[in-house]
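HUMAN: Quick job: go over this next protein and say how the chain folds.
***
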Amino acid sequence: MAPGVEELQFPQLEIPLIINSISPILPASPIPACNGDSLYLSNLDDMIGARVFTPTMYFYRSNGKMDVIKVLKEALASVLVPYYPFSGRLRETKDGKLEVYFGPNQGVLLVEARSEMTIVNLGDLTVPNPAWTNLVYSFPNEEQYKVIDMPLLIAQVTQFSCGGFSLGLRICHCLCDGVGAMQFLSAWATTARLSTLTANPKPCWDREILMPRDPALIQFPHIEFKRIDDGSSLTRSLWVVKPVQKCYRVSREYQAHLKSLVGNFSCTTFDAMAAHVWRSWVKALDVRPLDYELRLTFSVNGRSRLINPPLKQGFYGNAVCVACATSTVSGLVNGPLSDTTCLVREARLSISEAYLRSTIDYIQVKRPTRLEFGGKLTITQWTRFSMYESADFGWGRPIYAGPIDLTPTPQVCVFLPQGGDDDSDGTMLVKSKTFTKNKNSTYSSTKEKRIY
C-alpha cells in the first residue's frame, strides 16, 4: 500500500430494527398544482441512468431531548410547498418518456424505526458499509430500478437505544442531480434548524429550457451511450470472479503527489485521481486483449456551460452530462499516468453547451432503454457536494453523510469527502470493488492485483 493510502475496514454486522410507522407527508399548505396536472421532465431527467433512486445515509449522535421525528416531519411538510414536485409521482407518456403528475393523497414517505443497538455497536461510521441497507426503506418485493408510481422521496429515521439516530434517504434521480439534491436537503435542514420555511436559493423547475431541438441535431458520436459487445476479459472477470467492495482513505499529500507526476498543472486533482484509479483498476483486472478499447465515464456539471439561455441559480433538476474518455488496455497499463490524465482532462473539457444540447437530442432520437457497461468504468465524484454542511437539522453535522454501497454494478467507483470531525484537509475516500484470492490475501496491481 502506497504511503498516504489506507485501506479502511467496515464491520460485518446485522442491524435488527422494528418499523414503528410509515406515514405520507403532504405539503403543509396549498401548492401550484392540482389533481391531474403534470410537469415536464427534460431528457437529462428521464435518461436511463437517472431512472434510479439514490440512497444516502446520515448518522447523528444523541441530541438530548429534541423530538427528532416531529422536527423532521414539520420541516419536510413546509419545504414540500416550494419543492412541491417531490410530492408527485412519475408516469410514462408517449414513446416511454416520463413526466411528474399529481393525484390525491400522494406526498412523500417518512418511516419511523428503532433499533436496540447503539451507535457505538455500528463500528466505524466514517466508512460506507453495505450492512446499513435496512436503514434505508425499500418496499417489500420492490422491483429494481422501479421509479414509476413510487414516492419520489422516501425517508427512514432509525432511533438507536443510545439516543443516536440515522436518516436514510432515497431520492429519485429524475427529480434532481447531486447539486439539486443538496439544495433540497439544505432547505429541509435549514427549515428544521430555524423553525421557519427557508429555501434559499428559491427553487426553480424550468425543465423546458432543456427541451430537445426540432429537428434534433446530434453533433457528436456519444460513445458514452453506445452498446459495446465486450470482446475482452473484463466482463467475465467482474461477474464470474465476484469482486468485493473496498474503501481507501487517500490523503491530500498523496493526491498532490499524483498530480505532480502528471506535470501538467492545467489538470485537476480529479483528472489525476480518476486516471490513476482507471489504470489501477484495469491492471487489477488483467484485461485482455491489450488492443481492446475501454471507456471511463463520469458526470460533469453543465450549469456553468449553459449560456443560451442560462439556468437560474435555484434550478435543481438534472444538469449533468456524461463525459467519456477512451483508451486501449495497452495505453492504460503500459503508458504513463500523464497520458491517461490528459485523456480524462480532454473528456471533461469536451462537455460544452453544444455537447449537452446534442446529448438531449440524442436521447430524444435514440432513447436508450438499458444501462450499458461494456468495457466501462464509471467514477462518481461526491467530493464536490456539501453533504455535511447541508445536513445540519439543528443537532449538528452528521458523523457520516454519503452513500451506502456500490451495488448492483461492480463497475462504479465513488470519490467521497472525508467526513466526521475533520473534513477540511482535502482527504478523500475512494470506494471501489477489487478482488480477493482467499480470505487472507488481496490482489496487488503489480505482483498480484490491487486497486492501489
